[in-house]
Amino acid sequence: MRSLYAPFDEKTVRSLKLGEIVNITGAVVTGRDEVHIRALEYLDEGKEVPQCLNEAVLYHCGPIMVQDDKGTWSVVAAGPTTSARMNTLEPRFIREFKIRAIIGKGGMSKEVAEAMKEVGCVYLAATGGAAVSYAEGLSRVTGYDWLDLGMPEALWHFQTRALGPLVVAIDAEGNSLYEKVREKVAENLKKL
Amino acid sequence: MVVKLPEPTEKVVENILRLANTKLPEDIGWALEAAAGWETNPTAQSQIGAILENVRKAEHMYKPMCQDTGIPIFYVRGKFDSSIAKDIAQAVENCTKAIPMRPNTVDPIIRINNGNNLGPGMPAVHYIPTDDDFTEISVMLKGAGSENMTRLKMLNPSDGIEGVKKFIIDSVIDAGGRPCPPGIVGVGIGGTADECVAMAKRALMEPLDMEDPDPEIQALEEELFVKINSSGLGPMGLGGDTTVLGVKIRKAFCHTASLPVAVNIGCWATRRAVARITDNDVIYSQGVRL
């Protein structure tokens, strides 16, 4: 398993190969439906958007978080959510914030893959449901924004330690492991 | 003499919520272990390996195995009265804090979240009154990744069983990696539209190693299991030999002019727990045929 250190530069991102298994140590932020909606709305309205989104490693995840008596947050469970829900918002999101990697599950559309290719961004597939293991990787909460969106939808900031395993499922050339599997599946189904 | 104190219903419901969240039903664990044995694709191996490691950690650390603790769906069977709804709701609110479970329920239009997994229509409870002298409460935690892939189609009777099979296979393949495969395919055939979807979901409560009493249904389940797995979609839709761990079908009579079919997929973490309460005991398990 290849170890990567976030934030990434474009060169590192473009060196990642389809099917390669990696883990990430460094800064990762969570964002799903509501973070995408609000960030793009704020841009349109000329409002300030949290700096942490620039060239970020974005994790499609709605974690379970707990706060202790002193107000310190920690993570209990944090697996990936279904990325396809963000298909319509993601191309612009990637272009605006120069997102370098998206961690999620289930893959994303061709339009998203095109934006990834243009900007230099990869899609890393996390194992859906493996929430306790990934929570271990999200070792420290470094901050949050937009908690008013609710615990699952907020923009959480993490310092990760060997967050993984993650499979490079869409590379920075726009090649998709999901597409390859789909072609194979279509062939196999014809034989039934 | 053994003295048994009665357990309040609210506590029993808390117990099944904790059991379902932290311990994968053993029938699903066995199926995943078997899949780990036959998979040859390295990506598929990495996915099943990560799942099994996560299951072990969740059980040992007493933590929810998936952050999407879902919508808890309850089935109450046997003898009961209407007060049970209040006990179930209270237990859901308590467990949201204590386990913790992620606050998932929101208003469908304005999307506000009360933070306690309650609200109009929640928690979802189905009642099955019988003449038995026990009260049985079952729960399944249904995450949105799998639930969002639910499909219902009112086929024409002339589409026949081949049409039914095609619809089921297409539903699973089109869902791809989104419902966290390898999971369980719940199927309803017949009934009315609403009952058809309800059957598809209820089928997921049944352990994988329990055989359907109807040999025709059993054969259909096996045929679909083999065909879907031969697709190569694989764990998380990343390719491999394991797309489903099992297919579970329920049927009911339907209108002579109808052929309803519903598919409700359960992710690999099809989390279930059952408590059967009798006058002197509570027996816990992790699956039941409803």
**Terminus-to-terminus distance of chain B:** 35 Å
Distance between the termini of chain A: 36 Å
Report on the biggest sheet of chain A: 5 strands, mixed, barrel
* Element-by-element helix/strand order of chain B: HHHEHEEHEHEHHEEEE
**CATH homologous superfamily (4th level) name of chain A:** Fe-S hydro-lyase, tartrate dehydratase beta-type, catalytic domain
Question: Roughly how much helix do the residues of chain A carry, as a percent range?
Answer: 25-40%
Strand order across the biggest sheet of chain B? 2-1-3-8-9
Structural class of chain A, please? alpha/beta
Seen as an oligomer or otherwise, the chain set is heterodimer
Mean pLDDT of chain A: 96
- Overall domain count of chain B: 2
Q: What is the average per-residue confidence, as pLDDT of chain B, rounded to a whole number?
A: 96
Report the principal-axis shape of chain B: globular
Structural write-up:
- The complex is a heterodimer of chains A (192) and B (290).
- Chain A has helices at 10-14, 33-45, 90-97, 110-119, 131-137, 177-190, and strands at residues 2-5, 21-30, 57-59, 64-67, 73-77, 101-104, 122-126, 140-145, 155-170.
- In chain A, helix 3 packs parallel to helix 4.
- Chain A has a single domain (2-190), classed as Alpha-Beta Barrel (fumarase).
- In chain A, 30% of the residues lie in helices and 30% in strands.
- Chain B has eight helices and nine strands.
- In chain B, strand 8 (271-277) and strand 9 form a beta hairpin.
- The longest helix of chain B has 20 residues, at 42-61.
- The model of chain B has no long low-confidence stretch (mean pLDDT 96).
